[in-house]
Specification:
Chain lengths: ~220, ~800
Amino acid sequence: MNAHPFTLAGAQLQARGSGALHWPAQNLLCVSDLHLGKSERMARRGGATLPPYETRDTLERLDAELVATGAQTVICLGDSFDDRAAALALSEDEKLWITRLQAGRRWVWIEGNHDPGPIDLGGTHLAELPIDALCFRHIAQPGQSGEVSGHYHPKVRISARGRAISRPAFLVDGDRVILPAFGTYTGGLRSHDAALATLMRPEALAILTGPSPRPVPMQR
Amino acid sequence: MQPLPAPIAGWFDARGWSIHPHQRDMLARAADPATLLIAPTGGGKTLAGFLPTLAELADGTHKGLHTLYISPLKALAADIKRNLRTPVEEMGLPIRIDDRSGDTSQTRKKAQRADPPHILLTTPESLALLISYPDAPKIFAGLQRVIVDEIHALAESKRGDQLFLALSRLQTLAPGLRRVGLSATVDNPAEIATLLARHPDPCKILMADPGPAPQIDMLETAEAPPWSGGGAAYAIPAVLDQVRQHRTTLIFHNTRAQAEIFFHNLWLANEDSLPIGIHHGSLARESREKVEAAMAAGDLRAIVCTGSLDLGLDWGDVDLVIQVGAPKNVKRLIQRIGRANHRYNAPSKALLVPANRFEVVECRAALEAARENDLDGAPRGPGPLDVLCQHILISACAGPLTADQLFSETITAGPYAALTRQEFDACLEFVATGGYAFRAYDRWQRLMQRDGLWQLRDPRAASRIRMNIGTIQDADLMKVRLRGRGKPLGEVEEAFAASLTPGDTFLIGGRIVRYEGLRELTVEVSPHAARKPKIAVFSGTKFATSTQLSQRILRMFRQDDWPELPAHTSDWLHLQRQMSRLPETGRLLVESFPHDGREHLCVYGFAGRNAQQTLGLLLTKRMEETGLAPLGFVSTDYATLIWGLDPVTDAAPLFEINALRDGLEGWLAGNAVMKRTFRAVATIAGLIERNTPGARKTGRQATFSSDILYDTLLKYEPDHLLMRVTRDEAMRGLVDFARIEELAARVGGRIDTLRTPHVTPLAAPLLLEAGKVPVQGAAEERLLAEETERLMQAAGLN
């Protein structure tokens, strides 16, 4: 099965191979750090003109996850857009695609550091969202528990018989889960990084994304 | 020829020197638009290049920049500055000489632009940077001559393409510019002349007296070389003997890893503590400079080195060159041998050390080719478009331009003489808009056309573009430092660093260190006192044996006997002939035999390492499709060994060239070779910026792998310009499909499948060869499953 189950604050959650988090009891799908419009922002700021296909690629994968899980609630956990102007500059097709995904679903945009403030697309804008014992926010806060966050784009590198394999990963402990970035044009921060190592408990696991998600003890 | 100005003639006379004939020829041809001088190292080549400049500057009337000297190495430019200043001062000439490279201070660089010296010594990258400034027309207005040193080395890489494009720009800024190229012995002087000259100007080729023929032999050792491997540890005592008998010995290796291992073993056996150093491109600049200084001072008896010493620096006292491992390429061998004995008229002395039994044959073939001066070389492809894209960006930084003007300038550059307007326009389109079918960047183009002139949309982008000038790809190197003391030891490839786990030991700079961990972008190590490192390999470039050399080996196989080879090797070839047969030029030998409970297939293609590797991938794919259950393969320069569950009785159907080509199409797309090639192409073309202002501060999650860009283009726009460039390049380079086609044409269906009862003498070494490639589609997932399971269990979590 393409998901790894775990429990957080009593909630039965599924870390999916795509990098999305599924909460079957709530019929809820959560994705983080979509960074839609990243190529547009880079070009606007005088950088390279990257292949402008990451928004449709990200939406395509999100679409597939919604079909696969049948989720009725979608939480985008912040940094959904690379910045506000990038959100405004999405093509009509891309905006329509988002509208189509939102149809018939409860859709929540959590604000991130890249996309504070409301954006003129459907859905609700919130700084954070508590549901039962869980709380969804963009950046993890030390001392919280039952927290679902993103922001750091965690990734893990495994060395298997001399071959290095790097994958985006969920970081999970008794207090929180940090989601990997779902956007196509996103890199990762290794779990060794001090920011992640101090945030997570010593017994934390990393769940590697990919065709079959696999847990490993979090490297630090 | 003008008579030599008095101070110069007097300087020669005072020393009792007479001017070399090729130096005289250079003076006589000083007015030619382009001249190529081919001369051995030490023949006064550099002075020959500069003499016309000195003569023209002797009267002190020229204002501003007169001569630009370009070398592939910063160190060489600095070296030449020292070596040129001395005679200029002794002659009392009023000439200002300065060098400029990435190491030059900002203040000095500014001063050079405001008030250029008469002679500026620089590198292709620094020149590209210079022409990107709006004041380039002012700097180069009076330029008379450009001297390209070691042009044979530059011509082999994209650095040369970039340089020749820069020259086309300079020629517009200084229409009277004359070009001079200085080259070591090459197989294709006419081709290099075409690259150098402004197309279609003629270019006279001057050949200096090559001096006496070199003495080349194979090193005699008490012990026979091993069956496989590349370390040549068996030859250590004999090599040390040679070092003792000579003043200074250069010991060349083909890869950095081999140089490190050999150096380590050499010191373990160095009982007299002879001063021996190591020099290769992965070492920290400080360590390299130390070795260079010690060498210049005559303090070292030997240096273990790689291609980093192939070029230039003139160390007169080398009296022996040892090449460890088959040289793979005769031209490179001769150039390396030329490093010995720079005294004119003394023959260079060289010894070849085969690392294994097959290399005995290859060394013999190379030695004979070198004696006959039969040089090899692959035809050069057309000027690469990624370099042109960068050149367009550089040109736009200097100021607005018209497409017509830049195109007509571009096709005067030798490598781009056959460029079509369509190709040029595709490059311009890519630079301006990204060139995507989906027009996303109309508002944010990099270049905009205003009043018919192309210019940067945002002039501030210029500094960003300048930060990324250059075509050298350092394959993501990571610095290695000693933990705590912070002393840099050198660099390793990121992929190698990623495969290390704490506690692993490896060799760098001749010492064994223990891997402690990663800290930001640095590999931290601690000293480790072991005799044997656990992991020794960090790969350098692996060259494929050239076509010419492979053919020579096949011709040697035709002989009835091999008196020129040591007995251990000729016995081995006789045994092969007795048990099977020897490969031939016009046929393809394929052996099929059982060994160790598996079926084996050995294909003697003699197509070079890269092509044999590609052949292994394609053949196993075909075998998989036809149910022959291959399990894995390994390749060397001359053969590919495939193992599997079922015997192959007739290999001929596997070699249908069209089927192989079809297989290539599908396999290539997702291949790591393509991704690696794409990264280089996209970086040069300006799609990926290695350096961005303040990038490091935002942390690593802001950057993402170029593989993602490749995958995205493959999915949404597989025919994008950069994807086309990537495919072309991979086919010529790492995939080397051309040599597979050449093989197919050469054997034309004459494929002999020989069934033998057991492994044959020629195939046996392949069983021991490192670098076996497993054939399993889901390899990565399986490895990951194993390893994650193990880690969970180790943590008591399962």
